[in-house]
Design brief:
alpha/beta; 20 helices; 6-stranded mixed beta sheet; 4 domains; Rossmann fold; Alpha-Beta Plaits; 18 strands
Length: 507
């Protein structure tokens, strides 16, 4: 490993003041998952901290080292939730005032958790960046001390005590440790400690595919700023990693694995099956990465360890998690199948499925010659979906695998039977609306007056943004105006006109 910089993080970690507030969390085996994937899987239970997240370690270590006069002036931080709870809890322990600036889209469970611990909450903006800018304004106005969520040596050292505990709890061989990455504080601190004492252990970072600021920064050789970040795993939704965390992660990480929403949902289910505990999406991120790495490498008989980094889950988000977990676990395939619109076709189709369990079946008559069926089928491995599609096509049924089609999973399964071939000039877009009052009105206000909405589907998934499918009748001559509208609106969107799920079930 390359030589470290002047800051002696080993000493900082060994002398970190965390246990006045935090606890040493257990390292638990996951027997069900271990048996399923053929490796010994260990889970570091940071979700069992007093604030249900490892963030307490860095926050308390940072606050406890402030001079008395700074504590008396109070502290301010910006956070999407977990760091906020760590600061609030630490400030309460130390008897100082805390102001937490949080994005307006922060899940209510995290806002309420901060308030219960005596901190003042200020909701501002839609992202961490907005909250941070406002927090810095308050620092200038009040003279309070800003407590960074990740890019601070004392915070990094506090998080590094997770690595210290792991090596003490498990002195036997560990092939790899998987750690979630948002701003990079946990990965930097844990990675530094592990690589100094056990350089043979691989330290692998895990990021969501739509919030991969650290991976892109390491590839570019400098910190990059993402234009947008996915909000499902709000605990790691960071547009730019820290300067110090970037420096350290470049040295200590062996690689970074990317996973999607379905994989995180599947990992949440894995933890529940083994422990009856429910992690938040970012809390299950490392385990999702572990599973993806093990599958990619064909690993067998290895000891693999993941950090369960948080459990601040909004209850209403569970409906989305449960819906997507089967796909994330590769236990469900979503297919579009075209069969003849004639008696006996459906029975023949079911006979081809054999003894496979059907998890969902949607159909509505729309064509005199063909029937388009949306069907969910139980599988045991992802490859079985491709095999089933091949078998159905060989039997004369036109089958299409939609398991990885976001539009199909989010919207089509709730809209089957809504074909409207008489609608002219329909353009279909999938949007992410900020989950706040006025988001829809803002969309309608900026939309062209002469454009008719021909399709609209919204379903609350308990996330920080609403997933919306919109069809608009826009004459070809006005498509340039439509593009201006989309650019000025500022919402993330995707053109779905060429999506085969739209053509089969809605077009």
């Amino acid at each position: 490993m390359p030589a470290m910089a002047a800051t002696d993080y080993l000493e900082r970690i060994l002398t970190a003041r965390v246990y006045d507030a935090a606890v040493e969390t257990p390292l638990e085996e996951m027997p069900i998952l271990s048996a399923r994937i053929g490796n010994r899987i260990l889970l570091k239970r940071e979700d069992m901290q007093p604030v249900f997240t490892y963030k307490l370690r860095g926050a308390y270590n940072s606050l406890s080292r402030l001079p008395k006069e700074k504590l008396e002036r109070g502290v301010i931080t910006a956070s999407a939730g977990n760091h906020a709870q760590g600061v609030a809890y630490s400030a309460q322990k130390l008897g100082c005032r805390a102001v937490i600036v949080m994005p307006a889209t922060t899940p209510s469970i995290k806002v309420d958790g901060v308030r219960r611990r005596g901190a003042e909450v200020v909701l501002h903006g839609d992202s961490y960046s907005d909250a941070y800018a406002h927090a810095m304004e308050l620092v200038q106005q009040t003279g309070a001390t800003y407590v960074p969520p990740f890019d601070d040596p004392d915070v990094i050292a506090g998080q590094g005590t997770v690595g210290m505990e792991i090596l003490r709890q498990h002195p036997d061989p560990i092939h790899a440790i998987f750690v979630p990455i948002g701003g990079g504080g946990l990965a930097a601190g844990l990675g530094y400690y592990v690589k100094r004492l056990r350089p043979d252990i691989r330290v692998i970072g895990v990021e969501p595919v739509d919030s991969d600021a650290m991976r892109r920064s390491i590839e570019a050789g400098e910190r990059v700023t993402l234009d947008q970040v996915g909000l499902f795993a709000d605990g790691v939704a960071v547009k730019q990693v820290g300067e110090e965390t970037f420096r350290l992660c470049r040295q200590v990480l062996d690689e970074i694995i990317l996973v999607d929403t379905d994989a995180m949902c599947g990992a949440i289910k894995d933890v529940f099956e083994d422990s009856r505990s429910i992690l938040e999406p970012s809390g299950a991120l490392a385990l999702a990465g572990l599973k993806a790495w093990a599958a990619r490498e064909g690993a067998e008989g290895e000891t693999l360890l993941a950090i369960a980094s948080g459990a601040n889950m909004n209850f209403d988000r569970l409906r989305h998690v449960s819906e997507r977990a089967e796909i994330g676990e590769a236990r469900e395939a979503i297919l579009a199948v075209t069969i003849p619109e004639q008696p006996g076709s459906f029975r023949a189709f079911c006979e081809r499925l054999g003894n496979r369990a059907i998890t969902e079946f949607n159909y509505r008559a729309a064509d005199p010659n063909e029937a388009h069926i949306f069907v969910g089928v139980k599988i045991e491995a992802r490859r079985q979906a491709a095999e089933l599609v091949e078998q159905l096509n060989a039997a004369g049924f036109k089958a299409l695998d939609l398991t990885d089609n976001e539009m199909a999973k989010l919207h089509i399964r709730h809209l089957v039977g809504g074909r409207a071939p008489q609608i002219e000039h329909e353009l279909v877009y999938r949007f992410e609306f900020p989950e706040r009052p006025g988001a829809l009105l803002n969309f309608l206000t900026h939309m062209g007056r002469g454009w008719n909405i021909s399709l609209f589907h919204y379903r609350n998934h308990g996330a920080d943004f609403g997933r919306v499918l919109v069809g608009m009748q826009v004459p070809p001559a006005e498509e340039a105006a439509l593009q201006r509208f989309l650019d000025e609106l500022g919402y993330q969107y995707r053109d779905e006109r060429d999506n085969p799920a739209y053509a089969l079930f809605l077009g």
